[in-house]
Amino acid sequence: MKVFIDGNQGTTGLKIHAKLAAHTQVEMLCIPDAYRKDASARKDYICASDVTFLCLPDQASREAVALADGKVKIIDASTAHRTDPGWSYGFPELSATHRQAIVRSGRVAVPGCHASGFQACVYPLRAAGLLGADAALTCFSLTGYSGGGKSMIADYGADERDAALDSPRQYGIAQTHKHLPEMQYVNQLTRAPLFCPIVADYYSGMQVTVPLSGEQIGAGVDQVYETMARHYAGAKLIRVQRMSEYAPSGFVAANAMAGSDAMRILVGGNDERILVCALFDNLGKGASGAAVQCMNIMFGLPETLGLEGIQ
Q1: How far apart are CA 293 and CA 222, in angstroms?
Q2: Could you write out the DSSP letters of every residue in 139-183?
Q3: Which of 75, 97, 125, 193 could be cross-linked to 130 through a Cys-Cys bond (beta carbons 3.0 to 4.6 Å apart)?
Q4: 89 and 109 in contact (C-beta within 8 Å)?
């Protein structure tokens, strides 16, 4: 199977390349650096591949899709196609329908990192009828700075950096974060959640928390845990645990899944105030790992081939 990564010098592209370097079923097509921005050369490489990963800005991803012929499968890690009904959403654990769409589709949009955690926490509750379409939801998300790409990584690694980087920083304060449309679209919500993303001084790892009122959903913490456990039963990359079992110390570290392509769903709190939390790596299940997982499913390969930290 021939694979091309368009945008292989970005954080996501480099991570996908590293995973595929050890993948036993792929042959990498590597464009010379001098031609990375040459549309004609990129077209040749895209069309010579069986599958092309797009690790590009949104507009460049749309342009790359136009270069591909109908035989080439595309896995897009940008925001460009995540709410496009003509594309499959690359989170196979959400439902059998999502998984089958990835199998059949030649066009797959990889979820955003924050959105991956939100979908993992909310979709099972929507599917079970515990949350209505008009639910007023809040999402609190901690991420490592690698999610900001090369420029942010350089800022945090600078010898003389801004003292503000020593502290966690909330962003997306205008409530127009680029992941909000897919968070709403995939869960068929009538309104976007109130979303509070925070970047902190560690390299990778995410902790996405959705707090819920037991009165709001008409269920207690045990029913929420059972719903999540039932939904993800048999999933190869997602494990559901009670928060008290996972973190008897009472602390949950946002970098706990750094380096892994898997995800943990934690359910805690009490019957009045329930916490559903997704722990994963923003570069793993939140980006590059999810992209490779989708490729494996598309081509009928073992789902976890080339992935790391699977338990």
Answers
A1: 31
A2: EEEEEEGGGGHHHHHHHHH-SS--GGGGS-EE--TTS--TTHHHH
A3: 125
A4: yes
**Which two structure tokens, joined as six digits, stand for 267?**
């359910």
φ, ψ at 11 (rounded to 5°): -60, -45
204 bridge partner residues:
none
Measure the CA–CA gap between 217 and 210, rounded to whole angstroms.
13
pLDDT of the residue at 308:
87
User: Would residue 113 show up in a list of annotated catalytic residues for this protein?
Assistant: yes
What's the rounded Cα separation, in Å, for the pair 185 and 111? 12
Residue whose pair of structure tokens reads 């939904």 in the numeric block: 231
Residue 66, phi then psi, degrees to nearest 5: -65, -25
Beta carbons within 10 angstroms of residue 34's beta carbon? 8
| Structure tokens, 264 | 């943990």
Which burial class, exposed, middle or buried, applies to 13 when counting CB atoms under 10 A from its CB (0-12, 13-18, 19+)?
buried
Q: Express each pLDDT in 195-235 by its tens digit.
A: 999 999 999 999 999 999 999 899 999 999 999 999 999 99
CB contact set of 56 (below 8 Å; sequence gap of 6+): 6, 7, 10, 64, 78
| Structure-derived torsion over alpha carbons of residues 224, 228, 229, 234, reported in degrees to the nearest 10 | 170
Q: How confident is the model at residue 22 (pLDDT cuts 50, 70, 90)?
A: confident
| Residues 285 and 259 sit within 8 Å (Cβ to Cβ) | no
CA distances (Å), origin 250, targets 88, 122, 144, 244, 279 = 38, 23, 21, 7, 15
Cα(183)–Cα(14) distance, integer angstroms: 26
Could you give the C-alpha distances from 270 to 123, 152, 183, 244, 304, in angstroms and in order? Answer: 21, 38, 25, 11, 34
Tokens of 14: 């480099």
Q: Which residue is listed with tokens 């970098």?
A: 255
Which one from 113, 139, 277, 294 is the annotated catalytic residue?
113
